[in-house]
Specification:
By secondary structure, the chain is α/β, with parallel strands linked by helices. It has two domains: 155 residues, 3-Layer(aba) Sandwich (Rossmann fold); 92 residues, no CATH class. Helices cover 29% and strands 28% of the residues.
Length: 276
């Protein structure tokens, strides 16, 4: 499990470890839980990539398995983030003897510490590598060593790691959303009964316009992303997912299909008029 603030080289280290696994002929899996700057699968999801050869290292964009979180930040969605990651760790353990898990840059405050604590609790990594520039990881490392038996290694960020600007992060995320929602998009009319969480009776369906959803099959897997549109007093989901769609998971984001810019959306406020 790799932890560290943004721009500390977690993804670069993950690639190096996976390359070493390939060289050692170990069945490897990469779990990308950095929902805002994902490399495997689209943003707002946790993705799994099987890595068994050098060819597998060439392109990480297509996930072999996917779980929908519904946000590009763990704020308010710690539960979804933790469960999505833990579920894919269990999938990976069935086939891989080396699992590398990348995480978000949330490492401080209540959200960051709660997120990492419960990931440790459910994912049960053998080794944690914490990357830091100054001393920002000391509280987190102390917490993990106090409560868990995993080996926790603390190391400095490599001096050649270059920070990425907020504009570059936003551009990367926009590109990944555009790829995940690339045309042609099917426009499926959907019933209010296909959603999780379930829609309350009497909800003004127009309030769900532009909501990002995870398109799910009947086994818990996310097949891809979709966007809701309210048209002619009905809801439609725009998605390039073909067969297998069985239900739609609501996230906490709205997305513009022209610019792929996102805005946070509180489901409790949308469904019940609550601002909690």
């Amino acid at each position: 499990m790799l932890i560290g603030a943004p721009d500390t080289g977690k993804t670069t280290l993950a690639r190096q470890l996976l390359a070493a696994g390939v060289a050692a002929e170990r069945a490897s899996a990469y779990i990308d839980a950095d929902v805002g700057q994902t490399m495997v699968g689209p943003p707002a999801c946790v993705g799994l990539k099987w890595v068994g050869s050098r060819e597998d290292m060439e392109d990480f964009s297509q996930a072999d398995d996917l779980r929908f979180v519904g946000s590009i930040s763990p704020e308010r969605l710690v539960l979804q983030e933790v469960l999505a990651t833990a579920t894919l760790v269990e999938v990976a353990r069935e086939k891989a003897d080396l699992i590398i898990m990348d995480t978000t840059g949330a490492v401080s405050g209540v959200t960051g510490q709660t997120l990492k604590y419960h990931k440790m609790e459910l994912c049960r990594p053998d080794v944690v590598v914490a990357l830091q520039r100054g001393s920002e990881m000391e509280p987190m490392v102390g917490l993990l060593r106090r409560f868990f038996s995993a080996e926790v290694e603390l190391t400095s960020v490599h001096p050649e790691v270059i920070p990425v600007s907020p504009e570059e992060r936003r551009s990367h995320r926009t590109k990944r959303f555009a790829e995940a929602l690339a045309p042609p998009l099917n426009r499926w009319r959907v019933k209010p009964t296909v959603f999780a969480p379930a829609l309350p009776t009497g909800l003004d369906l127009s309030r769900l316009d532009d909501m990002l959803v995870g398109v799910h099959d009947g086994t818990g897997r996310c097949l891809g992303l979709g966007v809701l549109k309210h048209e002619d007093d009905a809801l439609r989901v725009l998605t390039n997912v073909g067969e297998g769609m069985n239900g739609l998971r609501l996230g906490s984001l709205k997305i513009d299909l022209e610019t792929f810019a996102t805005t946070a959306a509180d489901l409790r406020e949308i469904m019940f008029g609550l601002d909690l």
